[in-house]
């Protein structure tokens, strides 16, 4: 293993030796290969640069106690990348090619998969970008599928400690736009609202539904969930939310492992009192408890501004226990990379 202070890792780029690259040209993908160069050479007219024709994924590799490496539901990332690709008129990446890219990248950079118990993981970033000579608003003539990786620590500083959020007046996506696709354009639109939230000392902002601005949709770049006193796990449903794999996993675990009632439905911003706990979830964020939400002039505290609630804590233990291989996973959730 390389010499890195695993406990001090944040969420920033550290160069690893290998990345996987495949090219689409004349209607077909090549078989892809591992390369060492971390600089892409692409045409100045590439549609990814001008018109945002690109999408990406995010998933992690987890070191188990026995030294082997787990991937958490990478087939779901592959399927979601293809849904994003379809929305932006990009070619599908066959699941076989996607998984080959992910597995080979982890294997080649095995020395960078943080040790079990450090809390750190190897973050994988698959990308699909439209490249090649172009100037008009057209889909690209060529595409690159890339997978690179970097070791990361906790996403929100403080780990499982709650942080506060502020409701934004901006929208991150349009009602029938690209909110459900994991595309860079959504993120470009979120930079200013995120920066304004951080200027006011909030972790990030909360986006309401773009149609009525009355219901919670997203927490920064994570999905929202709330817990009620009636032992319910509730998460918003909307066509402009990014369908989080972590969220769907928590819906399953809350119901089948914690015996909770689960539902996807409206989470009105005017009715935060119904939740005894609330959190943000995603691959990078894992589960981040929400201390309080600022909405206009009012600040609403859920469980506590300083302590994580018991149900959120149990969900976190169940999810991360499965990811790191300490708790039995539901069928098909874990793929093992043997170094
Ligand atoms: C990626 C992402 C999430 C989290 O999805 P996971 O599959 O759980 O990692 C949530 N919201 C947005 C906007 C995202 O881009």
TrEMBL record:
Reaction(s) catalysed (UniProt annotation): L-isoleucine + 2-oxoglutarate = (S)-3-methyl-2-oxopentanoate + L-glutamate; L-leucine + 2-oxoglutarate = 4-methyl-2-oxopentanoate + L-glutamate; L-valine + 2-oxoglutarate = 3-methyl-2-oxobutanoate + L-glutamate
Required cofactor names: pyridoxal 5'-phosphate
InterPro entries listed in its UniProt record: Aminotrans_IV, Aminotrans_IV_CS, Aminotransferase-like, B_amino_transII, BCAT-like_C, BCAT-like_N, BCAT_family
Pfam family of the protein (one): Aminotran_4
Keyword list, A-Z: Amino-acid biosynthesis, Aminotransferase, Branched-chain amino acid biosynthesis, Pyridoxal phosphate, Transferase
UniProt EC number: 2.6.1.42
GO MF annotation: an example: transaminase activity
Metabolic or biological pathway: Amino-acid biosynthesis; L-isoleucine biosynthesis; L-isoleucine from 2-oxobutanoate: step 4/4; Amino-acid biosynthesis; L-leucine biosynthesis; L-leucine from 3-methyl-2-oxobutanoate: step 4/4; Amino-acid biosynthesis; L-valine biosynthesis; L-valine from pyruvate: step 4/4
Homology family: Belongs to the class-IV pyridoxal-phosphate-dependent aminotransferase family.
UniProt protein name: Branched-chain-amino-acid aminotransferase
């Amino acid at each position: 293993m390389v010499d890195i202070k695993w406990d001090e890792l944040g969420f920033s780029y550290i160069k690893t030796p290998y990345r996987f690259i495949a090219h689409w040209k004349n209607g077909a993908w090549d078989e892809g290969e591992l390369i060492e160069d971390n600089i892409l050479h692409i045409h100045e007219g590439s549609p990814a640069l001008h018109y945002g024709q690109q999408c990406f994924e995010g998933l992690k590799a987890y070191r188990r106690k026995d030294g082997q490496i787990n991937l958490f539901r990478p087939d779901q990332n592959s399927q979601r990348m293809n849904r994003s690709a379809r929305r932006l008129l990009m070619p599908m990446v066959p699941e076989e090619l996607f998984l080959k890219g992910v597995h080979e990248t982890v294997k080649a950079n095995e020395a960078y998969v943080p040790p079990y118990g450090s809390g750190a993981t190897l973050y994988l970033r698959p990308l699909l970008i439209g490249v090649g000579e172009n100037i008009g608003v057209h889909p690209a003539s060529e595409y690159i599928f890339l997978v690179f990786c970097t070791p990361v620590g906790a996403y929100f500083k403080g780990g499982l400690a709650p942080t506060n959020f502020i409701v934004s007046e901006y929208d991150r996506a349009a009602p029938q736009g690209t909110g459900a696709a994991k595309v860079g354009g959504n993120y470009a639109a979120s930079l200013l609202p995120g920066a304004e939230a951080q200027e006011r000392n909030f972790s990030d902002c909360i986006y309401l539904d773009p149609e009525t601005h009355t219901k919670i949709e997203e927490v920064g770049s994570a999905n929202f969930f709330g817990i009620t006193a009636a032992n319910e796990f509730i998460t918003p449903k909307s066509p402009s939310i990014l369908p989080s794999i972590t969220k769907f996993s928590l819906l399953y675990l809350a119901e089948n492992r914690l015996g909770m009632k689960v539902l996807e439905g409206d989470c009105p911003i005017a009715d935060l009192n119904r939740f005894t706990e609330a959190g943000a979830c995603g691959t990078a964020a894992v589960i981040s408890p929400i201390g309080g939400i600022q909405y206009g002039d009012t600040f609403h505290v859920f469980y506590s501004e300083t302590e994580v609630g018991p149900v959120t804590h149990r969900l976190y233990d169940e999810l991360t226990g499965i990811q790191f291989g300490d708790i039995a996973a539901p069928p098909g959730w874990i793929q093992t990379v043997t170094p």
